[in-house]
Structures are given as structure tokens and as C-alpha cells.
């Protein structure tokens, strides 16, 4: 009888552990997926010359607050520019002169898109393209330019 009680309690403990891990895995999966558990969104496009290491599901921020997520990144074969598709929360209306810039969290952190809303009275609608963009600053290019300038002065 004592053996049966121990086996039953261990089995219940393992089952609770598996349920907890499943719950945590589901929460992590849905936290990076736009649209799941979120309010309504609209789609915006932006074209960049260089996206660095920007990834799908990276955040889109305004003043440090996450207002959307990147849902797709592709290459336009005509212009050879990166086309970034973003889902923005409906609560945030952006003027037509909004600018988009690829920034990095910290020195070597993840990259994200920072939006800067302008002063225009018209707002971007679903499917519009942000025309004012700044590409990612690639650390290797900066170091190369710095080294070239330093050797040029000697």
C-alpha cells in the first residue's frame, strides 16, 4: 500500500511538471507571434538598403514601447532592397511622414525597427509603405571606416 501511494504521488508530480512545461512553451511561442492574443493590427511595408541581422518577429517600437512585430522579410528582385512587412497595433495611428530606422538594443543586442511619427494630418492605412527609412548600422563597416581613417592620418 505504501509503495502504491509513493508511485501515485510521483506520477502526479511528473504530470504536473509536464503540464507546467507545456504551458510555458505555449506562452513563449505565442508571445513572439503577432496576432495571437493581440488586438487588431494593420500591415505596413518599409524598404531598406541593409537590414543587418533583423529577424522576423522582431519588435517594432515607438519611443521604446512595442507597437507591433515584423511578420516577413524578403528581397525585392527589381530594386535589390529588403522589404520588411510589419503588423502594427490598431491603437497606434502613424502619420504619412513617419520614418523607420533599424536600431540595436545595446551594443550587441537584438535589432528592431524604431518608428518616428511625423506631423502630417493624414495617417498610414493598411498596406501603405513607409517611405523614409534608415538602414541598419553594421558594426564591421564602422570599424572598417574607423581603421581606414586612422591609417590615413599616419
- Report strand %: 25-35%
Span between N and C termini? Answer: 87 Å
Biggest sheet: strand arrangement: 7-1-4-3-2-6-5-8
Backbone CA Rg = 23 Å
Mean pLDDT comes to 86
- Helical content band: 25-40%
What is the structural class?
Answer: alpha/beta
- Major sheet size, sense and barrel closure: 8 strands, mixed
Q: How is the quaternary structure best described?
A: single chain
Query: How many DSSP E strands?
Result: 8
Can you walk through the features of this model?
29% of the residues lie in helices and 32% in strands. It has 154 residues and is of the alpha/beta class. The protein has two domains: 1-31; 34-143, no CATH class. The radius of gyration is 23 Å and the shape is extended.
SSE layout:
Blueprint lengths: L1 H30 L9 E8 L10 E4 L2 E11 L6 E8 L9 E6 L6 E6 L11 E3 L1 E3 L4 H15 L1
Amino acid at each position: 500500500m505504501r509503495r502504491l501511494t509513493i508511485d501515485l504521488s510521483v506520477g502526479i508530480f511528473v504530470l504536473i511538471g509536464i503540464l507546467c512545461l507545456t504551458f510555458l512553451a505555449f506562452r513563449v511561442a505565442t508571445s513572439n507571434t503577432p496576432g495571437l492574443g493581440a488586438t487588431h493590427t494593420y500591415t505596413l511595408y518599409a524598404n531598406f538598403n541593409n537590414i543587418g541581422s533583423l529577424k522576423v518577429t522582431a519588435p517594432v517600437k515607438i519611443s521604446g514601447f512595442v507597437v507591433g512585430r515584423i511578420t516577413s522579410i524578403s528581397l525585392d528582385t527589381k530594386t535589390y532592397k529588403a522589404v520588411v512587412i510589419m503588423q502594427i497595433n490598431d491603437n497606434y495611428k502613424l502619420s504619412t511622414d513617419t520614418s523607420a530606422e533599424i536600431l540595436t538594443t545595446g551594443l550587441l543586442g537584438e535589432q528592431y525597427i524604431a518608428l518616428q511619427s511625423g506631423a502630417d494630418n493624414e495617417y498610414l492605412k493598411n498596406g501603405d509603405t513607409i517611405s523614409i527609412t534608415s538602414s541598419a548600422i553594421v558594426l564591421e563597416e564602422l570599424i572598417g571606416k574607423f581603421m581606414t581613417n586612422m591609417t590615413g592620418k599616419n
